[in-house]
Design brief:
Elements (H helix, E strand, L loop, with lengths): L1 E4 L5 H12 L3 E6 L10 E5 L5 H14 L5 E4 L14 H29 L2 E6 L12 H21 L4 E8 L12 H10 L8 H11 L11 E4 L6
Parallel strand pairs: 1-2, 1-4, 2-3, 4-5, 5-6, 6-7
Helix pairs in contact: 1-6, 2-3, 3-4
The structure holds NADP nicotinamide-adenine-dinucleotide phosphate.
């Protein structure tokens, strides 16, 4: 089975890539500035998801050289921290393009083949920030909430074709973006998490992995929280 994974070279993306390869999937991994070590069944494609033309080319290249992905995991994400009134429209648009427009655009390009095959699994990586007011994250929060609306509508459209569409909403994980946060603030965040520590990204990878299994075929249109009790 072929998985198109975006943001594959990021903190969570690398762990997801390892998990999927270890489970026997073929991974068509999108990277932007990052890279990944060569592995069997791993096909790496470079694309800036900010750009519609590059998104289209990415899907074409994957379909031509790997095949039609049955699974799409949109994990790429970007956050630019600033107060909403200080945000430039350009930065707002960049966050929206990568976090949500790319999810809509790439899924739209993959869905026809999934419909034909009568099988598909789509997972969007949202965030607890879509549910909680977090200072300085307006476009990020809006984009992660928009993913949930996209997911709900697509799940209803595609349920009859055995295609599930779900979102996972991680809290704070011990990987990737959290390492950009100053250590002092990291400690403050940890104190607010009922479990008292950042989530393990390997466990989140396994959680996403479950959604890809036949056993999960009745789960669609859901936002699955992974946050140590922070919300939900
Ligand atoms: N870490 C957390 O605690 C946490 C919590 C909630 C949600 N999330 C979500 O989980 C996902 C992964 O986050 P992470 O923590 O692993 O962050 P990360 O290490 O910063 O990874 C972000 C990924 O997005 C890719 N990306 C950014 N801008 C891009 C662009 N213009 N075009 C293409 N790709 C682009 C990056 O690609 P390159 O590295 O190749 O440039 C990278 O692979 C994100 O959607 C994030 O919102 C994370």
């Amino acid at each position: 089975m072929i998985v198109l994974l975006t943001g594959a070279s990021g903190g969570i993306g690398q762990i997801l890539t390892d998990f999927l390869l270890n489970k026997g999937y073929t991974v068509a991994a999108q990277v932007h500035k990052g890279s990944l070590p060569k592995r069997e069944r791993l096909h790496v494609f470079s694309a800036n998801l900010d750009n519609a033309g590059e998104r289209e080319q990415l899907v074409k290249d994957i379909q031509r050289s790997v095949g039609n992905p049955e699974v799409f995991i949109h994990n790429a994400g970007v956050n630019i921290n600033a107060m909403s009134w200080k945000y430039s429209l350009e930065d707002w648009n960049r966050v929206m393009e990568v976090n949500v427009n790319a999810a809509f655009h790439i899924s739209s390009l993959l869905i026809p083949a999934m419909r034909e095959k009568k099988f598909g699994r789509i997972v969007y990586v949202s965030s607890v920030v879509a549910f909680q007011g977090v200072v300085g994250t307006a476009p990020y929060a809006a984009s992660k909430a928009a993913l949930l609306g996209l997911m709900r509508a697509q799940s209803a459209e595609l349920a009859g074709k055995n295609i599930t569409v779900n979102a996972v909403a991680p809290g704070y994980l011990n990987a990737g973006m959290i390492h950009q946060v100053p250590e002092e603030l990291q400690l403050q965040i940890q104190q607010k998490i009922p479990m008292g520590y950042f989530g393990n990204p390997e466990e989140m990878a396994a959680f996403i992995g479950f959604l890809l299994l036949d056993d999960a075929r009745y789960i669609t249109g859901q936002t699955l929280h992974f946050n140590g009790g922070l919300f939900g």
